Structures are given as structure tokens and as C-alpha cells.
Amino acid sequence: MTAANAATRSVIGVDIGGTGIKGATVDLDTGELTVARVRVLTPEPSTPDAVAAVVADVLDQVGADGPVGLTLPSVVTGGVVRTAANIDPGWIGVNAVDLFGHATGRTVGVVNDADAAGIAEVRFGAGAGRRGVIIVVTLGTGIGSGLFVDGKLVPNTELGHLHLPHGHPHHGDAEDFAADSARERDGLTWEEYAHRLQQYLELLQSLFWPDLIIIGGGISKKADKYLPHITLDTEVVPASLQNDAGIVGAAMFAPIS
Residues 6 or more apart from 57 whose CB is under 8 A from it? Predict the structure, then answer.
């Protein structure tokens, strides 16, 4: 591989979350970060202009040129943001590709954050080489989801907004009950949290009957604290790329000519 070709295989991924914005260069052949990741707190309020300014700062700190892939905790279709469950509502209707392109002076691609994490795990991580139906669940401020059939992404599934079965005492989105933020908010022990997560995963199993469920997000690095308490017919494993999956997946969506 020539130096020029090697350069085109290393692009920047930026993962925009509810609490932090993380970025790094990524080797697209291996899925590895090629520099130490940069992390800056997500601004409050997380308006489009405020987030775009932080993204520009993250890119300056990463210190690499070239195209950028970015995630948002939103449904994104045709570059336009459609939902804003865990980000400022001012995002709805914004053309994020135009916004970030103008703010950074670069060509950019924008994708749902859980879809990005999922595609990274299926390509390079816990789902590599696996067939059938795979669901990647990211646990953090909310619950994100990536749905794959024989390695093909079904985009923007937003399964964290499913409601638990009729008669369940929790009324509302599942993420309000079983996200990592709910564990912190309600002061749950890991075993208590695992009981909640079990109920959510049982719902996914009953609807999709996946062959594999991968648990990602920042909480994936603590999987030994809660996964042993979960018993499911479906195989459940922690994400291999852990909290870097969003950065890797974002880079995979960078527009490379």
C-alpha cells in the first residue's frame, strides 16, 4: 500500500453523545484508533451551533486533515436530523451535513450513533463473522440500537423507545427504565439494574428473536458487574470495542472519494 493509499484508509470519526463528544483518527482496515481519542464535554444546551463549535474544537485537537464521519443521538435520513430524544430539540429538521461541513470546512458524513457503534462491532468487534439477526444495544444517557440481518444494517431502528409489555409498572420509553442513566438516577445496585435490563432484553427477544445481542456504550466495560445476572435464550455478549465503537463506526461513514 502506498503512503497516499494508507492516508485514505485513516479518517476521523467523531462520536457526539449526551455527555461527551469524542474524536480520533481510525484505521479503516483494522478498526483501530491511530491516535489517543480526544473528549470534550457536550455543551449545555446542546444546540446545533454549540455542538458544531465543539466538534470543530475536537478536530483541531485531533490534528488531522481529511474527511470526517460524525454520529448524532438522533434518527438521521439524507443528512437531516429527524428526532432529538437526548439532544436539544432545535436539531429537528437541521441538515447536519451542511451544518458540520460549514463549521469545519470539511466533507462530512452523519449517522445515528447506535448504528455507527453497531456497524463497527459487526465489522471489527463482537459480531464479526456472525450471520443471522444481530442487535447491538448501546446503554448510556438513553438506549440506542443497531439492527443487522446477515451483516446488513437496518438503519434508525430506535428500539430504546419501545414500551415494555402491557401491564408492566413502567409506562413510557424503555430507555427511561433501563438506560445506564436510569441506573444512576435511581441508585440501583448492579444486580437490580440487571433485573431491569433483563426485562428490556426479553422484550427485544420476543419481537425479533435475534441470534446475538451485543451490549455496547460506556457501560460495556463494566459488563462483568451485570451480565452474569442476565439469563436469556439469546446469546448476550459485551461489545469488544466498548466505548470506542461510535468513533470507529463514525469514521466508516466518512465520505471518502
Answer: 40
Number of C-beta neighbours around residue 126 at 10 A: 22
Residues 185, 109 share a domain: no
Helix axes 113-124 and 245-252, enclosed angle (nearest 10): 90
Give residues with Cβ within 8 angstroms of 84, minimum separation 6: 74, 90, 91, 92
Domain coverage including residue 197: 126-240
How far apart, in whole angstroms, are the C-alpha atoms of residue 38 and residue 64?
Answer: 12
Closest CA relative to residue 256, chosen from 24, 65, 53: 65
In a domain, 214, yes or no: yes
Q: What are the residue ranges of helices labelled H in 18-162?
A: 48-62, 96-104, 113-124
Q: To 10 degrees, the CA torsion angle through 221, 228, 176, 253?
A: 40
Cα-to-chain-centroid distance, residue 146:
8
> Is residue 246 within 8 Å of 120, Cβ to Cβ?
yes
Which tens digit of pLDDT belongs to each residue from 154-192? 999 999 999 998 788 888 899 999 999 999 999 999 999
The pLDDT, as a whole number, for residue 8 is 46
Cell 481529511 maps to which residue? 66
- Do 11 and 98 belong together in one domain? yes
- Tens of pLDDT, residues 185-237: 999 999 999 999 999 999 999 999 999 999 998 898 999 999 999 999 999 99
